[in-house]
Amino acid sequence: MDLPQPRRITDAEALKALAHPLRVSLLNHLIAVGPRTASECAEAVGSTASNLSWHLRQLARFGFVARVEGTGGRDRPWRATDIGYEIGSFDDDPAVRAQQDALAVLGLNEENRLAQRFLDRRHALPDEWVEAAGMHGYTVNVTAEELTGLLGMIDDILRPYLVPLRADVPEGAVPAHIGIRAFPR
Length: 185
Known about the structure:
By secondary structure, this protein is mainly alpha-helical. Helix content is 49%, strand content 5%.
């Protein structure tokens, strides 16, 4: 099955537009849960609806989000335009590289924020979800080519379950975060 790929961001201005803590959280939230209004996103990302409306418009300028078509009313939902995003390999252009570095740091911060949020709220979750959750760290002995292959296999396993792609969502399913970091030690 040929599933959509995440958007590869290589333009310095688009990277700069995304390299903001609230925008990273906001875009990741929309990717994870689907279309939502600014008001619906406010609690999840720790901001106000009016502030989020401004940031959503900034993300829309660079094609990261769009209004949901066919909905009326003042507070119309926004949706992520892609199933995810990646910064690719680090660029030789210092301007692009600086924005890639900033976005990578924000990505790590977002991963940590989500993990801490889970830890803070796990007491309110059903036991089955607490037991299903995991935080694993592995050190593997691989070549760069093998690491690339491993990450590709992991992506192939996870991609059919991505929120924007999965059509056969079983009852009781909720969005779950899986973060993977791979780098030489």
